[in-house]
Amino acid sequence: MDEHKPVLVDEVLAALTVQPAGLYVDATFGRGGHSARILAALGAGGRLIGIDRDPDAIAAGRVRFASEARLTLVQGAFGELATLVHAAAGVTQCQGILFDCGVSSPQLDRAERGFSFQADGPLDMRMDPTRGEALSVRLARASFDEVRDVIATLGEEKYARRIAAAILRAREVAPLTRTLQLAELVSAAVPVREPGKNPATRTFQALRIWVNDELAQLRSGLQQALGLLAPGGRLAVISFHSLEDGLVRDFLQRHASVDPALASLPVVPAAAQPQLRLVGRKQRASSEEVTGNARARSALLRVAEKLPRSAA
Ligand SMILES: C[S@@+](CC[C@H](N)C(=O)[O-])C[C@H]1O[C@@H](n2cnc3c(N)ncnc32)[C@H](O)[C@@H]1O
Q1: Is residue 78 in contact with ligand 1, taking CB distance under 6 Å?
Q2: Confidence class of residue 310 from pLDDT cuts 50, 70 and 90?
Q3: Residues with Cβ within 8 Å of residue 216, at least 6 apart in sequence
Q4: Which of 203, 216, 220, 299 is an S-S bond match for 7, by CB 3.0 to 4.6 Å?
């Protein structure tokens, strides 16, 4: 029940090229699957900082890794990556950073966290339930346009207008407080059925991304990772849907090229030089991995290496 099968673990380890005495950051600790492998590759002098915004993840990590002195666990959002790393280790540089985006299996499996359209729970969906507003609170207040736009954009749901209208109609009758209440009304509003897919899937994804501000978190986390990586340091990012992957791809490509606004200058200033080198192409899980772990099906890994700043 409290398990999370990590995805693309061998690929992540190969990407990070762990140096035994290096300092690494697992920005999405979860249940520590990737962290365990990073620790196994680190030497006695190496260090790992595990970050998660979910207090349950950090509490479970403290139990699982109780005797692991090389690991520092930090509860916080990776949108504040630089501050969290600096506070945890007193450093401003590290040799590698991993982002394994999205939610963990325990978050989805525990009905009381409010992520599931299959098991009834409070309509919450916050990864950190100690901050921000539960989904029920945001949905009670949001305008029709906002709900429709969130579902259309973050869920890529073509029936967003119908679903938003159904949500607004329902909340006139009674507050929306339960996950199954929402799942049922979304199901009733979606006119077609995709085989093997719950009709509420896209809407739940959209609302989860909205409540947790996931895309802004990722943008900020990546930007700070760029500043934290030492020359030669590696960045590995696993995404699970096209909005995330598009953001990661654009970020990496932008920082792996000369700033186009300054590219035509006779001497390209150091600040406009690429800061990253892309490492390989995007990677997907093998069919064997997908057979053993359905979550791996949509996982995409992108890797980059921090370049030394030229003196130009
Ligand atoms: C896919 S799971 C990571 C699983 C982990 N790699 C493992 O092997 O167990 C994603 C985790 O990232 C956390 N997370 C998502 N967004 C975050 C953010 N902005 N800041 C910190 N943690 C975040 C979630 O709470 C969740 O525990």
Answers
A1: yes
A2: low
A3: 79
A4: 299
